[in-house]
Amino acid sequence: GATRVSHSNHFRSSFFLAVRKKKTRSELGSDRGKFEARKMALAFDEFGRPFIILREQDQKTRLRGIDAQKANIAAGKAVARILRSSLGPKGMDKMLQGPDGDVTITNDGATILEQMDVDNQIAKLMVELSRSQDYEIGDGTTGVVVMAGALLEQAERQLDRGIHPIRVAEGYEMASRVAVEHLERISQKFEFDVNNFEPLVQTCMTTLSSKIVNRCKRSLAEIAVKAVLAVADLERRDVNLDLIKIEGKVGGNLEDTELIYGILVDKDMSHPQMPKQIEDAHIAILTCPFEPPKPKTKHKVDIDTVEKFETLRKQEQQYFDEMVQKCKDVGATLVICQWGFDDEANHLLMHRNLPAVRWVGGVELELIAIATGGRIVPRFQELTPGKLGKAGMVREKSFGTTKERMLYIEHCANSKAVTIFIRGGTCILFILHLLINNSFLGYGLGNKMMIEETKRSIHDALCVARNLIRNKSIVYGGGAAEIACSLAVDAAADKYPGVEQYAIRAFAEALDSVPMALAENSGLQPIETLSAVKSQQLKENIPFYGIDCNDVGTNDMREQNVFETLIGKQQQILLATQVVKMILKIDDVISNSEY
């Protein structure tokens, strides 16, 4: 019969091309020998007709069915295992070295996974999971990956029992709904306002207790809450975190971290004899330099007499004079310029008692303009009193024995913008902390790693405070919420008659992995501790009992003031369930061979 070969570009570009033809048995035998000689695979379709897989087939690997699911589950569990030891207040830190030698030390789940070089596609899904939690909630990035890993582990057991992956995925979906509804029931509303923000501080302290900065968690939590309340719109229940700028400088102690109601600029006054503090400042924000105008064309000036030189010098002096006078005339008491000054201009500004700051970056210039209500002026001719920014106080501050100085622009007219200024770093003890967690014995040398980790910790605290302003409901931490949900899900499993009830019970077991990891990381007997707390919750029907990680002597999380936001915990369960469902539904993996 006639041969039909598909020449479409679609099939050419794909990794296989099928050629079908009716042949006799002898022809098939001779053809098979040719194909084997060319190292090509011969396959048959459902009607027994042969087709040839051509393009780069020997360079592909393929996993199908249960093998694919097991391989995917193993990849997900491997990532979760890395983060499991970082969970909770006693969690260990990870040290990650970048390609250019940068070292990051952190126990923030999202940061660890961002910095890791992950090849496996399923492992990348876990990285995305952590990133989603970070973008949406800002906290709980480690917990969500640990939860997903536990769900995958339980799913593997269900697959070994012969339960279909789709039934497992459906059972997980039902269980997650039960867990989220139960969280809603056991949650409590916290009332707070601008004057009474203690509940917000307690919740932020829970977040910071698992970080390296936990020795200063009270002061840092207060700073985070005050910063969020300063920029929050409480009527609309909305917070714009872009208005909170986080700056850091190596040196000093972590206790020196402060909240500035204004903008911080890493510059100093252009002349050492200029005043260091200006009250009720009127700020001219310029993007034009204090220099004589330069012609656009090529030019050459011939000076052959002293008179000509004097004339040129006087002309330049007049230019500077007019520039400085223009700033004085409009009522400016401080000049902030994007470009540099000529020495003569600087000298003249000092003599005219007009303080100035030079080489301020474009982004900072915009922030200053927004905060002070001023306008950025590109030419001296356009400078008017209406374009000046206003600030209650501008002061220069120097640090320690170093000559480093920074400019504080406070009590700004227009904006709610605030800056959190982080100091500190304990180099020797930072390493000690890695070895013996939470034991700070003194102070060492300032370093940048500590500043970066403090920035990440404060970002988490800011996100938690923002979430509480959006939704005032909280649940209790220390694994209390997970244990309560586990009991509720286990009880609900009996209501489902199908195979799904096995998956629902597996979900309940997976929820126990979080309190078990907390107990394990705190050096407690995990199974014994979890059983005791679980029986206590069941006996007294109180969902506030959790793991006593800090060895306070009570399992009641209300007494320990360990809170978490309701939306954060719900998001953890929903996100972990969605990712696990996605992984379970993959039954065929075609990838490039490693060899």
TrEMBL record:
<keyword id="KW-0143">Chaperone</keyword>
<dbReference type="InterPro" id="IPR027410">
    <property type="entry name" value="TCP-1-like_intermed_sf"/>
</dbReference>
<dbReference type="InterPro" id="IPR002423">
    <property type="entry name" value="Cpn60/GroEL/TCP-1"/>
</dbReference>
<dbReference type="InterPro" id="IPR027409">
    <property type="entry name" value="GroEL-like_apical_dom_sf"/>
</dbReference>
<keyword id="KW-0067">ATP-binding</keyword>
<dbReference type="Pfam" id="PF00118">
    <property type="entry name" value="Cpn60_TCP1"/>
</dbReference>
<dbReference type="InterPro" id="IPR027413">
    <property type="entry name" value="GROEL-like_equatorial_sf"/>
</dbReference>
<comment type="similarity">
    <text>Belongs to the TCP-1 chaperonin family.</text>
</comment>
<protein>
    <recommendedName>
        <fullName>T-complex protein 1 subunit epsilon</fullName>
    </recommendedName>
</protein>
<keyword id="KW-0547">Nucleotide-binding</keyword>
<dbReference type="InterPro" id="IPR017998">
    <property type="entry name" value="Chaperone_TCP-1"/>
</dbReference>
<keyword id="KW-0963">Cytoplasm</keyword>
<dbReference type="InterPro" id="IPR012718">
    <property type="entry name" value="Chap_CCT_epsi"/>
</dbReference>
<dbReference type="InterPro" id="IPR002194">
    <property type="entry name" value="Chaperonin_TCP-1_CS"/>
</dbReference>
